[in-house]
Amino acid sequence: MDMEQSGGGGAIAARRPQPSPAAAGGGEDRLGALPDDVIVLILLRLDTAAAVRTSVLSSRWRRVWALLPELRFHLAPDGHRIREILDAPEALSLVCISVTTKAAGPEAAAAWLPSAARRLSGDLVYHNMTAPARMKKRGDVLLPCFEKATSIELNMGFLRLALPSLGVFARLAELSLMRVRFRGQCELGDAVSSPRCPCLQKLNVYLSRGLHNLSIHSVSIFNEGHGFGANLFRVLRICTGLRKLSLVLRSSSSLECLSDCPCDEPTSWKTEELLLNHLEDIRILNLKGADHEVAFLKQLFKWATVLKKMTIAFDYQVSKSKAEEFRQALAGSSRPETFVGFYMYQDADKRVLVLIKPEDQGTGL
């Protein structure tokens, strides 16, 4: 009787799962009993480095962290460690990779970006926080082709970025580049045009350097905001008795054009006559230096027959060379009696304006 009971108990014991180290030590392993999907939800609340460290809890956790659909590294110290995690053989495709570093060099990003390009099927976010005093020490980073990424946001901390000369970003819909110094023979316009970014709808470039030319041929990118010339021409045609005009240009990407918006009207402002024979003073803030702005200001000089003063303050992202190029494009457009002053902000806080003084003509055109 005792033997039968012992034998039966032994068979039952053999079928039971072995207790985890926590249970063997007298504690109850409640975490080990959780299903995989619940463990994944717990790990998603952790930084990826912390999630990886949970693998010491049990062999199940060591397997489950690799099932995470998102990997987030906050102030990651080692790009090679990020690459090791991304290259884990059991790891699945990722919908999000987010990496934040502080004053990281180019080798840190270069270590993991190729692995990220292979794994990612969603959003990439990379922020390299660095002090302005360290800008000159930054090097080059080659951006690999992310064939399956849908969104890429790069704040490079003024690392030099070389764009890939080959490959198609087949699913990329949004690209945001901030504090980038462009480097390499491949221009940004080539990389983001339709042949290589067929789905790109939104492109943002902020506080960047080295972008000497931007010509984009795309059938997918949206034009956000309202047209500059058509809308302003419509207002001026109604208010021909203006004596002073002040324009503050703001990004209006959140404002959608209605069905009867002037943006859809023909560009008649380029050819129509308009007499503004009372307008004496014009002030324009946050000019971007675009070609369509040059074209409209040339028309404005023709319309404003008694204009005495025009003050132009460029957007803080406009470089001094770009501002000078804009000034040269307007040369000869104003009347001799009109003073035209060009100003730039000293910093992004927009607190101090500095007059751009042409070398040959004092402060006018």
UniProtKB/TrEMBL annotation:
Q: Which Pfam families match?
A: F-box, FBD
Q: Which residues form the FBD domain?
A: 274-312
Which residues are in the F-box domain? 34-68
Q: Where is the composition biased (Gly residues)?
A: 1-11
- Comp. bias (Low complexity): 12-23
List every stretch annotated Disordered. 1-29
Q: Which InterPro entries match?
A: F-box-like_dom_sf, F-box_dom, FBD, FBL15-like
Name under which the protein is recorded: F-box domain-containing protein
Native organism taxonomy: Eukaryota, Viridiplantae, Streptophyta, Embryophyta, Tracheophyta
